[in-house]
TrEMBL record:
Its main location: membrane. The chain crosses the membrane at residues 6-26, 38-62, 74-95, 116-137, 149-171, 214-239, 251-267. It is a multi-pass membrane protein. PROSITE patterns: G_PROTEIN_RECEP_F1_2 (PS50262). CDD domains: 7tm_classA_rhodopsin-like. It is found in: Cell membrane. InterPro entries: GPCR_Rhodpsn, GPCR_Rhodpsn_7TM, TAAR. This is Octopamine receptor beta-2R.
Length: 309
């Protein structure tokens, strides 16, 4: 029972979190930027993961919640398809952030609107043609080639690339931080005013973008380690997989999709600022409503006192 309580809790967090990110980007004109289109697409993919994995598993197993999936093939097809949508969209977003952080001067020339649209379209189409259709029509491939190819393409290769991106971003941010410290020390020694606020803000934005990218990569790598282990056990027949391992993999898939909107809210600077402005505006509206209510109540009391006199 604890498994289903945790599963539904994660489902709610994933759907609400990613749904709010989608609403925030769509409804806020200042967030209609190139980087946020990949964030929006990833949020849609993550919301789909949250809305399908455990609700579908619950619907298929409603008469046998403690047992293995009754329609295991249907569940595997749907859950892995949406999970791979999340992986491919995450790859596009990480690529966008990598270019912005590592090659900022080339960003506008490399990341263009048409290229972004094509990349996002491929992110949604590739899992269908590489995994979903072959699996659905039961294409027979010698041995475990199809399984191995799928795992390498959607699970192993992204981890290798993301680790490379992590190392590159870490080294570059470390080098930039050291250089900025040296410049500030030299300016202070020469009694020269600090650089303009715009430059400082740009540095903070790059640092925040790097932190968000590293946090999302960390969650992805951790959440997919168990699934990769299970797949290699199947391919190389090392040990038989346990139903508890399948349950853990499903939980980690949804945890990965639930963690991404949290990373946006706390580490993506423009979304964080928009969220803070929204909360501040709501707080002011609540305070104004309370003041108006108190003033109205005070006026009514004064009228009652006057009529009594």
């Amino acid at each position: 029972m604890w498994y289903w309580i945790l599963a539904w809790l994660l489902t709610i967090v994933t759907v609400v979190g990613n749904g709010f990110v989608i609403y925030l980007i769509v409804s806020t004109r200042s967030l209609h930027t190139m980087p946020n289109w990949s964030v929006l697409s990833l949020a849609v993919a993550d919301l789909s993961v949250g809305a399908t994995v455990f609700p579908l598993l619950f619907a298929l197993n409603i008469n046998n919640l403690e047992g293995p999936p009754i329609h295991e093939r249907v569940f595997f097809l749907v859950s892995r398809t949406f999970a791979y949508f999340s992986v491919t969209n995450l790859f596009v977003m990480i690529l966008d952030r990598y270019v912005a952080i590592v090659h900022p001067l080339k960003y506008l020339s490399v990341i263009r609107t048409r290229r972004t649209i094509v990349a996002l379209a491929i992110a949604w189409i590739a899992p269908i043609f590489v995994f979903s259709l072959p699996f659905a029509i039961e294409i027979e491939v010698k041995g475990q080639f199809l399984l191995l190819f799928r795992v390498l393409l959607f699970q192993i290769l992204p981890i290798i690339i993301f680790i490379f991106v992590t190392v590159r971003i870490f080294l570059i941010m470390r080098r930039i931080s050291k250089r900025r410290s040296q410049i500030f020390a030299q300016l202070a020694f020469n009694h020269v005013p600090k650089p303009p606020t715009a430059e400082l803000r740009s540095g903070r934005e790059n640092k925040a973008a790097a932190k968000m990218t590293l946090a999302i990569i960390f969650f992805f790598v951790v959440c997919y380690v168990v699934e990769n282990y299970k797949c290699f056990c199947i391919v190389f027949k090392m040990i038989e997989t346990d139903p508890a391992l399948d349950q853990l993999c499903n939980l980690l898939f949804v945890i990965n999709s639930a963690a991404n909107p949290i990373a946006y809210a706390f580490l993506k600077r423009d979304i964080k600022m928009t969220l803070l402005k929204m909360l501040t505006r709501r707080k002011r509206q609540t305070s104004s409503a309370q003041v108006g209510t108190e003033a109205s109540s005070s006026g009514q009391r004064n009228e009652i006192s006057s009529s009594t006199l």
